[in-house]
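Notes from the 1:1 (GR / supervisor)

We went over the backlog. Supervisor wanted to see one worked example end to end before approving the batch request, so GR pasted a single chain during the call. The sequence is below; no edits were made to it. Supervisor asked that the structure be written out right there so they could see what the output format looks like.
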Amino acid sequence: MPVDAILAAVALRRQDLIGLAQDLIRIPTLNPPGRNYRQICDHLGERLLARGWEVEYLRAVGSPGDSDDFPRWNMVARFRTGPGPCVHFNSHHDVVEVGQGWTRDPFGAELDGDRIFGRGACDMKGGLAASVIAAEAFIEARPDFRGAIEISATADEESGGYGGVAWLAEQGRFSPGRVDHVIIPEPLHKDRICLGHRGVWWAEVETHGRIAHGSMPFLGDSAIRHMGAVLEEIEARLYPVLASRRTDMPVVPEGARQSTLNINSIHGGQVEPGPGDTSLPAPCVADSCRIVLDRRFLIEEDLPEVKAEVTRILDDLAGTRPGFRYSLRDLFEVQPSMTDRAAPVVNATAAAIERVLARRPEFVASPGTYDQKHIDRIGRLKNCIAYGPGLLHLAHQPDEWVGVEDMLDSAKVMALVLHELLG
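Structure output shown during the call:
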């Protein structure tokens, strides 16, 4: 049977899967600033080119962060047998900073039992490796398939995806007619199908004051005190309202089924001294204070009203608090996205999970955004899911890891999805 041949072809590639995942993890594609993007694209491209794929290297010139020092490189590979639909596997190749607390080499890709450790192992180089192995095994077992398979390794998902999937979508790379089905192997676990994500609004609020000598603060006006009033109002007025709102989207974990707001950062007064600087601060009243808001909103909420809830607090303070002045600047925004449960890629993936894992999948939505937002809003392609190996809570953590068996099972699922959609 073709299904048995496909599963056997994946199983035979176990060591290849481990080696490919390790190779990818050992390339430190740190974002920021965007290191080694071309190196990882070349590594994947050379492998696929040698196996008969058409390979393109595409630099997102002019995208945020792109420069000659840190060019935003993307790799898109295509294997086509003739007329028919196209299934596209999209993975981001960038990883976040290492951070503190590691007990292993973050880029050593150490194999310990069933686990491969390293920055990006879970998010999402394990998923990228699994998609490559799935496609290669499927092509070997079913060389007569109809249509096309694409694999992309794209830049900057960790900073919004504007140098990767967003740029590619603007070039028509995810347009209906070119691509029919998209699977993004984000680490939602091998028995879950992610249908979409909440929305996000990032904004910077700045309060303005007047500088003066710190021994005579009454001659100035502290922007930090004004920001304190903003934070008090957000705490008293906004957080209780957000906690009362719930979504019908199957967002995981449970706490993310409500609206949330995170104060991402706060900066006020003098610049922090650099490492090794032992100088004392000068006595000044802060004339500026800034916070960055990370607001995650539900598909049932309206983005203009999400913004208005914050501006009402600021305007009320401007009308009641002496000397209060503020500026509000949008940083970026993303509408919620949700793929229909009846979409062909959803049905095919659900059936494959049942075949490989002998259990029904869980349908979920992500608390944060990922590159589906650009495929949906820019590419106008709705038939997109996230499915891949790994545990979401390990992403961005020290000693991040991905399980070999999880990668292998996910590769089997992806290969059977190809069989269902292209067979």
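Supervisor's comment: DSSP finds ten helices and 16 strands in the chain.
Batch request approved.
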